[in-house]
Amino acid sequence: MQIHQRLTRLRLMAPSIGQCAVGAALAWLVAKEVLGHSRPFFAPIAVVVCIGVGLGQRFRRAVELVVGVSLGIGVGDLLVSWIGSGAWQIALVVALAMAAAVLLDSGSLIVLQAASSAVLVATLLPPSGTGGVDRMLDALVGGLMGLAAVALLPTSPSALVTRYAMGMFGALADALRRIAEAVERSDSELATEALAEARTSQANVEEFKQALATSREIATISPLHRHRRARLEGYEKAAVPLDHALRNVRVLARRAIVALDGSSTLPPWLPTALRELADATLLLREELATGRTPERAGAAILSVASRQGLERWGFSADVMIAQLRSIIVDLLQATGTEREEAVAALPPLDVPSADPFPSAPAENDVHPGDEKDLPVLTP
């Protein structure tokens, strides 16, 4: 990873790091000064686990952490006070704490916290008086301080999701332009490069989805940002269609490689249509980022849709056209258009009895591990 990529990642994670630092300090102070606990290390640990440097489901993480710690400490205190400490005692305590956590909830964090807390009790912190209850309270304080830090020291939910959307929109636009250039130059190597680059885009999609989930969470629990929930609606409508569009672009790139290797005749208007869709994608990104209704992007996509030709160009070309139509429908849906309306915006196809639009690409289009990209093509 290059230095500018590392710095970009640090900038994106800076709000979470700040929340962890402030929340951990406050949790320690509350547990030590207010509750009177001498070594409340569970409190700052709970903050770090609750907030983390990842995205999404912080409220659930806080609940799982508190329950997991309480369960692990409870089982550990109960058993260790009876059977003492040792190798077989640790094995028994961990097994019972994890089994109880699995029965209680399917979350991985609650199971891990139950196990680690049980280990601490069985090794470093043998039960003594109210120690178990104090540790449970420390975990609870840490969880609450973590949520308070997210609520009162939040990053802007709209700014967060916009930052992570940049990569997804950029990957889609770049892939469309690269395929357009490959078709224009009749260069299958360029199409191969476009496919290789597009295959890295799924990471952008997953990061965007996590950022969107975190933004919804912030807008829900933070009184400072509840008014921004409406700004997230456009991204919520666009998330799934954009994921589908990127998958369809990858399949389009694979078919372009086949078509160009076989010297198939491709429509002369195809590169222009791909570039115009790339421009419309960036326009959609701009409109969503500024909170505007994506009317201009929708009009640009409809313009490409209305100029689809009805000519037959051969199998590979017809499959590429069908794939292009699917991408158009995906992008229209990303603007908030209903699927039926998006499909209706495309010129009807006079499909002969031998249907040139298969429900999935030909076998030689499929790269190992890419089966999840296979679309259902728009008729």
UniProtKB/TrEMBL annotation:
Residues 26-148 form the Integral membrane bound transporter domain. One of its GO terms (cellular component) is membrane. It is found in: Membrane. Its main location: membrane. InterPro entries: Memb_transporter_dom. The keyword Glycoprotein does not apply. Pfam families: FUSC_2. Keywords: Membrane, Transmembrane, Transmembrane helix. The keyword Aminoacyl-tRNA synthetase does not apply. The chain crosses the membrane at residues 12-31, 37-55, 62-80, 86-104, 139-161. Residues 364-379 have a biased composition (Basic and acidic residues). Residues 343-379 are annotated as: Disordered. It is a multi-pass membrane protein. This is Aromatic acid exporter family protein. It comes from Nonomuraea zeae.
